[in-house]
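Support reply, case 0932

Customer input (verbatim):
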Amino acid sequence: MAVWNPWHGCKKISPGCMNCYVYRRDAEFGKDSSIVTRTASFDLPVKRDRKREYKLQPVRECVYTCMTSDFFLEEADAWRAKAWEMIRERSDLQFVIITKRIHRFDVGLPEDWRDGYNNVTICCTCENQNRADYRLPIFMELPIKHRMIIHEPMLEPINIRSYLSMGKIEQVTCGGESGNEARICDFAWILNTMQQCMEYDIPFWFKQTGSRFKKGNKVYTIERKNQMRQAEKAGVNYRGNVLSI
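Our regenerated output:
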C-alpha cells in the first residue's frame, strides 16, 4: 500500500468527524488540523530519481490519496487541478480517494474525465443513516467508473439496499472508531451490512473493530494495534459467492 497526501488539514463537517484521528494526532504536536496546507509530498506521483524513473512505482495495492485531509475540501480547490493532472499522468497507478464531500465532486473536475478515469476509485463515507441518505443519492448519479461505500466510523445500523441494488458499488467497508473518546461500534451493525452485501453479491470488508466494540451485551475495549486483527478474526469478510472465513 502507498499513501499520497498532497495537502494536510481539514474542516469537520459531520458526526463522523467528531473524533478525527488527524486532529488527535496533530494535537500531540501542538498542530492545528483546521489549517489546510499543501505538503512537501504534493508532487509525489510524478517525482523521479536520478535515472529519471518514477520514485513511486506501481504497487500491488492502491495509492490511498489525501488520508490526512479531504480531496474535495474547499480550501484545496486551487491545488486540485494539478493533482488531477498527476493522477492522469500516472495511469499505471490505482488511486483510491475517500471523501465526506461527495457533493463537491465536480468542482474542478478535469475536462477529459467523462465517465471517469480507469485508475481512480471514489469512496463515499456514510457514518450514519442521515449521511447515507444525503450523500449516496448524489454519489450514485455521478460519472464514476469505480465506487465504494465506507461506513467508518460506523455509528449506527445503516440501510443501503436501494443503492446496492443499482449494481454500481464494488465494495462496502465498515469499521469502528479509534481513540480514547471512541464511540461504540456494535457487531450487530456490521453483520447487518454484511447481510445486505451478500443479498446483492457485493464484496464486504470489516476493516477494524474500533476501540469500543460491542458484541451481544458486552462492550470490549480493544487496543489500536489489535483492532484490524480482531476484525479479521470475526470471519465475516465477503468476497462474492463464498463467505470468507
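We compared this against your earlier run and they match. Two observations from our side: The chain has a mean pLDDT of 96. Residues 48 and 214 are 47 Å apart (CA to CA). Please reopen the case if you see a mismatch on your end.
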